[in-house]
Specification:
two-stranded antiparallel sheet, 5 helices
């Protein structure tokens, strides 16, 4: 029975712990690139390509700076969200599940509000951030709860 409990606790979907730091290291430059693209019209010239349209006749010059930035941010957030903690136990698993539930509820609440309150390009901007908000909300809440629990454990141990 104990073996089965330990088997359940070991999730096969989590990445090694070091991926949290790799993800954080990648998140900073990719998010900076995304902000510069969105608000300062920054592009990387090497990412300028001619793309044929589906009709096979028309072509356009497209810059893939935004695709690179968004892909990098998504991959780095996934690395941070799905990285194991140093010590994975039942509390961490329960906290992880509750944080996912919180992030989904908050994300879709914000999406419903934006659907009714925002229009045109303002709504499009919200949708850009909405793609990432589930991961961001999860990471922030999960890390905050883990930190708070470790702090409480150290405080109770010292007493």
């Amino acid at each position: 029975m104990v073996y089965k409990t330990l088997q359940i606790m070991k999730s096969k979907l989590l990445l090694p712990h070091r991926y949290k730091w790799v993800g954080l290291f990648l998140f900073i430059p990719f998010s900076l690139l995304g902000v510069l693209f969105l608000y300062a019209d920054f592009t990387i010239d090497a990412l300028q390509f001619t793309v044929m349209h589906t009709d096979g006749i028309n072509a356009s010059n497209d810059n893939f700076t935004d695709e690179l930035a968004l892909t990098g941010v998504i991959i780095s957030l996934i690395m941070m969200a799905f990285a194991r903690e140093k010590e994975e136990d039942e509390f961490i698993h329960l906290t992880r599940l509750e944080c996912w539930q919180w992030s989904v509820i908050i994300n879709f609440t914000l999406l419903v509000l934006a659907t009714w309150l925002l229009y045109d390009f303002a709504f499009l901007n919200v949708m850009i951030y909405n793609m990432l908000s589930i991961l961001v909300i999860f990471i922030v809440r999960f890390q905050w709860l883990v930190h708070r629990n470790k702090k409480a454990a150290v405080k109770s141990f010292a007493l």
